[in-house]
Write a structure and sequence with these properties.
- The complex is a heterodimer of chains A (164) and B (452).
- Chain A has 164 residues and is α+β, with helices and mostly antiparallel strands.
- Helices cover 18% and strands 32% of the residues of chain A.
- The radius of gyration of chain A is 25 Å and the shape is elongated.
- In chain B, helix 5 packs antiparallel against helix 6.
- Chain B has 2 domains: 2-365, Cytochrome Bc1 Complex, Chain C, CATH 1.20.810; 372-450, Cytochrome c-like domain (Cytochrome Bc1 Complex, Chain D, domain 2, Orthogonal Bundle).
- In chain B, a hairpin with a 2-residue loop joins strand 3 and strand 4 (395-396).
- Chain B has 21 helices and 4 strands.
- Chain B is globular and about 85 Å long.
- Chains A and B meet through helix 1 of A and helix 3, helix 4, helix 5 and helix 12 of B.
């Protein structure tokens, strides 16, 4: 190999190595927080005794969210239902169609979404309208008569439940 | 490879790149390529590294007193490679000061600032000042105790300039106090004003270099015919070598070596942040970065009416002389052996700077190793985690008194009584009495007494 070519190759090799040693960490640096799922903790949503059978209640509560280096608080709400068999169900407050907030119509005894008229029964089953799947259920636990919930969001508009 | 060559060929047929390539690569170096000429390109490489890592740090940094500290904590702990990227920027800054210092030293030694390269030298001195500006403005951005108090002192020094000092300080701080307005203006300076100015001057520096050509060897026989004023046909007679490939190769090897060192430091020597800046905690004794230590030490020797001499008169004189060096030193000779006066002055300056730096380092960090008891005392200090409450030269918490200079204010008797029962000599103290045996008591006391 000619000396000139040899020096050129070595020069290119060194510069390539520096580039590689920089680009891998820098890409990871930019990308890493974007794909980190927030560790959600149990949040206390209210007392179970406030729930009476067949009368869904919207519970609002404060959650602490990690926003980069900041801790912020946000108000979240969920729909909690005491079913006839005394078990509790907790629904995400967003319609599975396009994510509107629905409400409970106590006269018709149905959940109704005002955006596109999706209607769900008290167990979350779709009765009519464009909603592709039942209301999303959230994990919860009851401790000392207090209801604890983990807030989750799901992709809207899909027949399968996909967590965001 | 063939694809790149094909694309280059395609572009070349349209943009006529070949002449530019030849102009860039075939610049003649009088006397030939040399490992001595790598410092300029090493400085440029480090500047590019600082630009790159700085841009990435700005992705997560928030320049307000409420968020600056936490956002850097976030980079260090929650971002992949965050500590590494910040480490590269931190150590890259130190490396850049070293590189620019060596570059200036080489230029000085080789007499390369002499005609026709006066303007190149002056642009270089301006770049050096900008580099110090980077160092000073960047130091505040983490908004920890060290940053806050070191900047406080640096800014106060400006205040000793007569007549305009007070107003200057207000302008630098953006108000009466070091606070939110100081941080945002230091941030803007550090990431927008200084980089653009530096970039412009670097281009000017390189433009002049290409117009005049590198100075090359100081051996007249090898390098006498250089410069833009020399007719083209005589240039070819000089014993010179094109920039490419050997000098490019040397520059690349040095860039690789510099990168390895900076990356190793970033990986192996983490630099923890001090506590978040607390303007009410006046007990904090900041120590400047190593490259300002000589100056910090020098300030200790001037008092009272002589203080302005060190805070601004000497620096002003120094930078003025440095800037106009090519017009002050009119001796046309470049060979160092035949410039004894210039070399002597340069050497005296270096001895002064490094002497002061050595004294400073010794005063700050050293425990006399001749006394093993003191060394044991220092080990005991860290074993008992005294730094959980006490601070020495900026490291440790500020719950109890700062111990940086405790040896000046307490004697052996007081310290021993205090270790046995803190409340007996310091009523209201909540320091626990540690069960120390007599040897340990003696060691720890000796270490305390060495802190002065």
């Amino acid at each position: 190999m000619e000396r000139r070519t040899f020096l050129t190759r070595i020069t290119g090799f060194i510069l390539g190595l520096i580039g590689l040693a920089l680009s891998i960490p820098l890409v990871g640096y930019v990308v890493s927080p974007a794909f980190r799922r927030q560790a959600q903790d149990w949040a206390e949503a209210g007392g179970v005794h406030e729930l009476s059978v067949g009368d869904p209640k919207e519970l609002s509560y404060l959650v602490t969210l990690q926003d980069g280096w900041m801790k912020t608080t946000a108000v979240k709400s969920v729909w909690a239902v005491r079913q006839p068999d005394e078990s509790v169900t907790v629904f995400s407050p967003l319609c599975t169609h396009l994510g509107c907030g629905y409400h409970w119509d106590s006269d018709d005894r149905e959940f109704k979404c005002p955006c596109h008229n999706s209607i769900f029964d008290i167990t979350g089953r779709v009765l009519s309208g464009p909603a592709p799947r039942p209301l999303d259920r959230l994990p919860f636990k009851v401790e000392k008569e207090r209801l604890f919930v983990i807030y989750k969001q799901f992709k809207s508009g899909t027949s399968k439940q996909i967590e965001l | 490879m063939t694809i790149i060559r094909a694309i280059y060929g395609w572009l070349d047929r349209r943009l006529r790149l070949k002449p530019i390539e030849e102009m860039l690569l075939n610049e003649p170096i009088p006397g030939g390529a040399s490992w001595v000429y790598v410092f300029g390109s090493a400085t440029l490489f480090l500047f590019c590294l600082q630009l790159l890592t700085g841009m990435f740090l700005a992705v997560y940094y928030a320049p307000t007193p409420d968020h600056a500290y936490d956002s850097i904590r976030f980079i260090m702990s929650s971002v992949a490679f965050g500590a590494f990227v910040r480490g590269l920027h931190h150590w890259g800054a130190s490396a850049m000061v070293v590189a620019i210092g060596l570059h200036m030293l080489q230029v000085y030694l080789y007499g390369a600032y002499k005609p026709p390269r006066e303007v190149m030298w002056m642009v270089g001195v301006a770049l050096f000042l900008l580099t110090l500006g980077f160092a000073f403005s960047g130091y505040l951005l983490p908004w920890d105790q060290k940053a806050y108090w070191a900047t406080q002192i640096g800014v106060n020094m400006v205040g000793t300039i007569p007549w305009i000092g007070g107003d200057l300080v207000r302008i630098i701080r953006g108000g009466e106090n070091l606070g939110a307005l100081t941080l945002t203006r230091f941030f803007a300076l550090h990431v927008l004003f200084l980089p653009l100015m530096t970039l412009g001057l670097v281009l000017l520096h390189l433009f002049i270099l290409r117009r005049i050509g590198p100075a090359g060897s100081f051996e007249e026989r090898r390098a006498v015919v250089t410069g833009a004023t020399v007719p083209e046909e005589r240039r070819r007679e000089t014993l010179s070598e094109p920039f490419y490939p050997r000098q490019v190769f040397m520059d690349a090897v040095v860039a690789g070596g510099v990168f390895l060192v900076v990356a190793a430091l970033a990986l192996l020597l983490p630099f923890p942040m001090a506590d978040k800046a607390d303007p009410s905690d006046t007990s904090f004794k900041p120590v400047p970065e190593w490259y300002f230590l000589f100056y910090y030490q020098g300030l200790k020797y001037v008092h009272g009416s002589f203080e302005p001499l060190a805070t601004w008169i000497l620096p002003m004189v120094f930078y003025t002389v440095l800037m106009f060096l090519p017009f002050i030193d009119r001796n046309p000779v470049r060979h160092p052996a035949r410039r004894p006066k210039a070399i002597l002055i340069g050497a005296a300056f270096l001895v002064g700077v490094f002497g002061l730096m050595a004294i400073s380092l010794q005063e700050i960090y050293s425990v006399p190793t001749t006394d093993p008891s003191m060394v044991r005392g220092r080990e005991l200090y860290s074993k008992l985690q005294c730094n959980g409450c006490h601070r020495i030269h900026g490291s440790g918490a500020a719950v109890g008194p700062d111990l940086s200079y405790v040896g000046r204010v307490r004697d052996r008797d007081w310290l021993i009584r205090h270790f046995n029962n803190p409340r007996a000599v310091a009523p209201g103290s909540f320091m626990p009495a540690f069960p120390l045996n007599p040897t340990e008591m003696n060691d720890l006391t000796n270490y305390m007494l060495s802190l002065k």
